Amino acid sequence: PYIVVFLNKADLVDDAELLELVEMEVRDLLSTYDFPGDDTPIIIGSARMALEGKDDNEMGTTAVKKLVETLDAYIPEPVRAVDQPFLMPIEDVFSISGRGTVVTGRIERGIVRVQDPLEIVGLRDT
């Protein structure tokens, strides 16, 4: 299993030792749940500072950029049979006013593009 941790709201903590303690606790917790706690990337930052365009102590935009780079480098691309027909089991269905019906799921195989016609298997007129 792969996981990347972003410790948010670090701008609210004045004590660097406290941040280190929290990081150690997170690593222990990850190890408890069979993740590689010692090898898991942990990025410390502040989403609020990033949204405001601040970067004091590299906790704002720099931390979020580092998070994205770490995700790209650490999490492998899923292997999927793109040469087979598109298949996405539906996990949930939402009715959103102004948009219509929205389905969510995980693509098992194939490729879909905007405006591609799709067939919903198992859904028939009654």
From TrEMBL:
One of the record's GO cellular component terms: cytosol
Give the protein's recorded name.
Elongation factor Tu
Q: Which Gene3D superfamilies match?
A: P-loop containing nucleotide triphosphate hydrolases, Translation factors
Q: Which GO terms describe its molecular function?
A: GTP binding; GTPase activity; translation elongation factor activity
Query: What keywords were assigned to this record?
Result: Elongation factor, GTP-binding, Hydrolase, Nucleotide-binding, Protein biosynthesis
Classify the source by domain of life.
Bacteria
Question: Which InterPro entries does the record associate with it?
Answer: EF-Tu_GTPase (IPR050055), P-loop_NTPase (IPR027417), T_Tr_GTP-bd_dom (IPR000795), Transl_B-barrel_sf (IPR009000)
Q: What is its EC number?
A: 3.6.5.3
Q: Is Ribosomal protein among this UniProt entry's keywords?
A: no
Q: Where is the Tr-type G domain?
A: 3-76
Q: Does the record bear Nucleotide-binding in its keywords?
A: yes
